Amino acid sequence: MRAFLFIIAVSFVLSGCASFEEAYHLDREFGEASQATWDQQIAYPEAPYADNVPETLSGITAEEVMSVHNETFAEAPTEVDVFQLGIETE
After folding, report:
1. Which of 71, 73, 70, 90 is nearest to 81 (CA)?
2. Quick check: pTM over 0.90?
3. Which among 57, 68, 71, 89 counts the fewest CB atoms within 10 Å?
4. How far apart, in whole angstroms, are the C-alpha atoms of residue 59 and residue 67?
5. What pLDDT, in 10s, does the model give residues 18-40?
6. CA angle, 58 as apex, 55 and 60 as ends, to 5°?
7. Which residues contact 50 (CB under 8 A, 6 or more apart)?
């Protein structure tokens, strides 16, 4: 029984040493997620390219797109009471 417990204890101790490879990868990739979130906070990341002339749509296609855009905002939005608990008050 002592030999069995000794083997388990030694395996626990040695399993802690096996994580050096993982720690190396963690240290190498440390900060990548925080750098990605920092980059996402930039309001207009394409600012250096703002002087370039964008590619345009042909007039017929742009006219159709703008008519759909204007039709979606033609109606006033309906007011919805989002705090409903199933109780009708009139």
Report:
1. 90
2. no
3. 89
4. 12
5. 556 666 666 677 778 888 888 88
6. 150
7. 44
Indicate the residue type of 26. Answer: L
Task: Report the distance separating Cα 83 and Cα 73, nearest Å.
Answer: 25
Alpha helices in 1-90 (DSSP H): 2-17, 20-28, 32-40, 59-72
Number of residues written out for the chain:
90
Is residue 39 within 8 Å of residue 45, measured between CB atoms?
A: yes
Q: CA separation (Å) from 14 to 9, 10, 58?
A: 9, 6, 68
Provide the pLDDT for residue 87: 66
Instruction: Scan for tokens 């900060």, then name that residue.
Output: 31
